[in-house]
What we know:
By secondary structure, the protein is an all-beta fold. It contains no helices and eleven strands. The strands form two sheets. Strands 2, 4, 5, 6, 9, 10 and 11 form a seven-stranded mixed sheet that branches. A hairpin with a 4-residue loop joins strand 7 and strand 8. 34% of the residues are buried.
Amino acid sequence: QVQLVESGGGLVQAGGSLRLSCAVSGLTFSSYAMGWFRQAPGKEREFVARVPMSDWSGLSRYYTDSVKGRFTISRDNAKNTVYLQMNSLKPEDTAVYYCAADKLGFGDRRVAGDYNYWGQGTQVTVSS
């Protein structure tokens, strides 16, 4: 049974930082690219960041423009965990954040339907 479990969300003031984690089990983690998406109330789920199957392979990470320079995605294949370090948070970053696994372990893929497995989400709220 595949499980993706996010943690690390919460309430933070604008300008603050949070680190999200997503622990993965039930699949060969090192073969999957991992992504973070977010969904704000009344909006569609949107791509945030993606890391290829091997973080040190020279393959690129990808970010949506609104988070470039503020968010960093990384992974630890020994721990089957993917992270999203979020700095300089803004009120518009408020959303439920989801991690997702893509069996295609490389490439720039930003469509939610391309991902095979999803976590339950963790709430991030940024106050002004």
